[in-house]
Structure formats: C-alpha cells, structure tokens
Design a protein that fits this description.
three-stranded antiparallel β-sheet; nine-stranded mixed β-sheet
Length: about 300
C-alpha cells in the first residue's frame, strides 16, 4: 500500500497544533523536562483513530498491571520499547487509555519518555505532536559522534554534557514523583535493511542500573513508516493504516537481570554493558516474532 507523507496528510491540523503548542524550539539545561500538553492529546488520538485498523490492541495486560502495582509500591519502573516510528509512544499511551480501563489511564499518566533533541528542534509540526507526551530530553550520543569538525565537536560536547547532566537530575525527580521512564533502547527508529539501527546502545545499561523493575514492550505493525526517499525528514514519513499490536513481557527485576547477563560473560574483551543491552534486544526480537504470529488473529 502506498502511503501519504505525514506533512501532507495532516497539514490541515497544523493551525490547531500551533494554537495549542507551548514547547520550546531550543533545548537547554533549563528545559529538559517537558510535561505533556493535554490540549494536544485529542488531536493525536484522532490521527490514531483514523489509522489503527480493526484488531489493534494491547497484549499482556496482566504484565502492564503487575508492573504498575510495583511502581505504586515505590519501585523505580522502566519500560524498554521497540522503535519503528514517531507514533510508537502515542500508540502505547492511546491503547493503554483505550483498552486497559483505570489501570491503563493511571499507567499512561505516569509515563515519561526519554527523547532526543531532534523532536523539539527539527520542525514545529513534529515538535507540536511530540508535545502531547511527557518527555525528558537528552543529547543523544549518536548525534555527537556524527560531528567531524574538531571545533564544532568540542562545542557540542560541552553542550551535551550540560544537557545530559540536567536530564539525569530531571530523571531522578521524575522517579521520586512515581513516574515511569520509557526508553527506546535502539536510540533510533529501525530502518529495514539497516540492522545497525536495531542494535541497542550501551548507555541503556545505565537505565537498568538505576531502575528496580522493567517490562519490554514490542510493536507489531506501524501506521507511520520511514520514507526511504527522504529518510531524515520526519514529515516525509508515510501514513499507512495498519493493525497495530503492542505487547508487554512479564516484569523483570533489573538487578537480577543485569547480574545474570554480566555473570555469563567470560570473555574479558566483551563489553559487559553492551552485553546487557544486546540481551534486551534479543528478548524484544523474540517477543516480536511471537506476537506477529497472532497479530491478525
């Protein structure tokens, strides 16, 4: 099925989004925490209503509920989630609120996603959509590593340190409020034919180390897909209606999970932090394949 570019399909919403948006166009260490703008949420919900086909749903509701109960008991909660499009987080929030009753509403309100600066700084339309959801903005390591000019690199490195230190403080404050941290362990959207975009980044190990419990959430189906003719332009992403199923793993105890992986590493040359993240990605892939078998049940 041929998709329609996002900016073309929803251009008619841009005026309403602009009227409601409050998010800053430039990220500094003073504004890394971005609270979700509830006024924009109905607009995003409408987009999902139009593009989620019959059969779209959550799987593993009991795991989401178990996870939430542990968070409410005071555990620091972490969601590690596959990443295919900029509608992944909206899809989770939408389906939790739509399909999981009071439990889903409670969990949805607690989720704070770790997001790269690009969502705020690239385009006002993208920024407005992202603004519907609570986020802690970071300076991604992949962005820094792409800079070749030494002078520019030094300048951006200093900026990244300030922003990411502020982000860690915001994360600590978020946890103390009983909020749940959601992270995309690949650090970027997966692009078919580019397996490196589905490899977990080693920094994710730090989130496990700073958390008590976690669930792994997979995404089968996507109604927003990267346009290979213009892959770096988020407004060129293609809108394609689809049956979208999000599924949760059982709850993992983070310390036990990390220790099990690290203790199994016998080769001193192996990066133990990367090994932990590689295990996360392996489990996400296995879960994804299992859910795909029942997506169109």
């Amino acid at each position: 099925m041929k998709g329609i570019p996002l900016g073309e399909r929803y251009k008619h919403l841009f005026g309403a989004l602009q009227a409601k948006t409050k998010a800053p166009a430039v990220i500094t260490e003073e504004n890394v925490f971005q609270k979700g703008n509830d006024a924009i949420l109905p607009i995003v919900d409408g987009m999902l209503d139009e593009n989620f086909l019959e059969g779209s749903r959550l799987e593993g509701l009991e795991h989401f509920e178990n996870f939430l109960n542990l968070v409410k008991e005071g555990k620091r909660g972490l969601i590690l989630m596959e990443h295919y499009s900029n509608l992944d987080l909206p899809a989770l929030i939408y389906l939790l609120r739509k399909d999981a009753g009071a439990m889903g509403e409670d969990l949805a309100k607690r989720i704070v996603a770790i997001a790269g600066m690009k969502l705020n700084e690239e385009d006002p339309m993208v920024r407005a959509w992202a603004e519907a959801f609570s986020r802690i903005v970071i300076y991604p390591s992949r962005s820094l590593s792409s800079i070749k000019d030494p002078e520019k690199y030094a300048e951006e490195e200093a900026k990244s340190k300030k922003i990411n230190m502020a982000s860690m403080r915001a994360l600590d404050a978020s946890r103390k409020r009983g909020e749940v941290t959601l992270v995309f362990p690949s650090g970027t959207r997966y692009r078919p034919g580019k397996p490196e975009t589905k490899r977990g980044v080693r920094e994710i190990d730090s989130y496990l180390r700073l958390s008590d419990v976690m669930i792994l959430v997979t995404i089968n189906g996507s109604c927003l897909r990267i346009n290979e003719e213009d892959p770096n332009n988020m407004l060129s992403d293609l809108v394609i209606p689809d049956c979208v199923v999000l599924s949760s793993s059982p709850v993992f105890e983070c310390k036990a999970f990390r220790n099990e992986v690290i203790n199994a590493v016998n080769d001193p040359e192996v990066d133990k932090k990367q090994a932990v993240v590689d295990r996360v990605m392996d489990l996400l892939n296995e879960q994804h394949e299992e859910i795909e078998k029942i997506r169109f049940r």
